[in-house]
Write a structure and sequence with these properties.
The protein is an alpha+beta fold. Helices cover about 30% and strands about 45% of the residues. It is globular and about 35 Å long. The two termini are about 15 Å apart.
């Protein structure tokens, strides 16, 4: 399964599911150059989550989502506006 990450109409990268763990998809993230300006936000999000600093994590995630991100299911072209996404280098996990 493949999903595309957009900010508005700008393609930021492609998520490819390699396995599924209950409600979470796990896989790879192929970033485009347009993603680089957001990479540090996702690195911060991941660090706070790993440190169990949930309140701060929520604030960072809200800031990320305020950027107008959306996923698109590549098979159906359906837009997904409510989701969680963790990107760690070229690896990703997400749910919606």
């Amino acid at each position: 399964m493949e999903y595309r990450l957009y900010r508005g109409d700008c393609l930021l990268g492609v998520l490819t599911s390699t396995d599924r763990d209950c409600t979470w998809y796990n896989g790879t993230f192929e970033a485009r150059s347009e993603f680089e300006e957001l990479r540090s936000l996702f690195e911060r999000e991941q660090a706070l989550l790993n440190e169990d600093r949930i309140e701060e994590w929520g604030e960072v995630w809200d800031g990320i989502m305020a950027l107008g991100l959306r996923l698109e299911d590549a098979a159906t072209q359906a837009d997904i506006h409510e989701f969680l996404l963790h990107i760690d280098g070229s690896q990703a996990s997400w749910r919606y």
